[in-house]
Write a structure and sequence with these properties.
With 216 residues, the chain is mostly helical. It has eleven helices and no strands.
C-alpha cells in the first residue's frame, strides 16, 4: 500500500540523483513499486509533491515553536526571530532538496513552489503583527500596518535565498542576516519620532484656529 511519505521520499531521492523530475508518473511509480493510480491518489503532479514538502516544513516549524513554554512570553519581534532561526534548522536537514527545488527561479520572491508556504507564513505573521498592534509594541499606521506582513514575506524570501548561497561555517552569516534583517524591519514597525511628527501635524491641521487664538 502506497503512502504519501513513500512517494515524497522516492521523489526527493530521484530528483537529487538525476537532477531532474521523472519523465512520467508511470515511470516514477514503477520505480518506487507502486501503481500510477496509487500515485494520483496522493498527488496530482510532481510540482504538488514539492509544494507539499515545503508546506509541511513550514507548518511543522510553526507548530514546534508555538508549543514552546516561553512562546507566550515572547514579543512579536522575538516570535518572528524564533521562526526564522528554527526554519533554517529545518531546511538544513534537506539542503540539497531546497537548492534543487528553487534553482532556476529568477523571481525568487514568489516561486510557484512556495505559493502554499506564502499563504501559511503570511497568516502566521499577521497574527503576530496583530498581537503587537494590540499590545502597542508595533505602531498602528493607517494603510501601512496592513503591509507589515508583506515586508516579512520579503524577509522570508531574502533569508532563504541568502542561506542557499551562504558558504560560511555553520551558516553563521545567515544567523547574522536573520538578526539584522528582522531587527531593522521591526524597528520600522515600531513607533518612531516620525510618528510623533505626523501626529503633531494632524493635531495642528485639526486645530488651525489656534493660530488666531494665540495672537497677542
Amino acid at each position: 500500500m502506497a503512502t504519501s511519505e513513500q512517494i515524497k521520499k522516492g521523489y526527493v531521492d530521484y530528483v537529487l540523483t538525476h537532477d531532474e523530475k521523472p519523465k512520467s508518473a508511470y515511470n516514477f511509480a514503477k520505480k518506487i513499486k507502486i501503481t500510477e493510480a496509487e500515485f494520483y491518489e496522493f498527488y496530482a503532479s510532481f510540482d504538488s509533491i514539492e509544494k507539499a514538502i515545503w508546506l509541511e516544513s513550514t507548518v511543522d516549524t510553526i507548530a514546534a515553536i508555538e508549543e514552546q513554554e516561553v512562546w507566550s512570553q515572547y514579543s512579536s519581534r522575538d516570535k518572528i526571530l524564533a521562526f526564522f532561526y528554527s526554519y533554517v534548522e529545518v531546511l538544513k536537514k534537506q539542503r540539497s532538496f531546497v537548492i534543487y527545488s528553487l534553482k532556476g527561479h529568477k523571481n525568487f520572491s514568489t516561486p510557484p513552489v512556495l505559493s502554499g508556504v506564502q499563504t501559511v507564513f503570511e497568516n502566521f505573521a499577521e497574527n503576530i503583527i496583530n498581537e503587537g498592534l494590540e499590545s502597542g509594541e508595533l505602531a498602528e499606521r493607517k494603510f501601512f500596518a496592513k503591509r507589515y506582513k508583506d515586508a516579512l514575506w520579503v524577509q522570508f524570501a531574502f533569508i532563504v535565498n541568502f542561506w542557499i548561497h551562504d558558504d560560511s561555517d555553520g551558516f553563521e552569516k545567515t544567523d547574522e542576516a536573520i538578526e539584522k534583517g528582522i531587527n531593522v524591519t521591526f524597528d520600522l514597525f515600531q513607533r518612531s519620532p516620525i510618528d510623533n511628527l505626523f501626529e503633531y501635524g494632524k493635531f495642528l491641521s485639526r486645530n488651525g484656529n489656534f493660530k488666531e487664538r494665540m495672537k497677542f
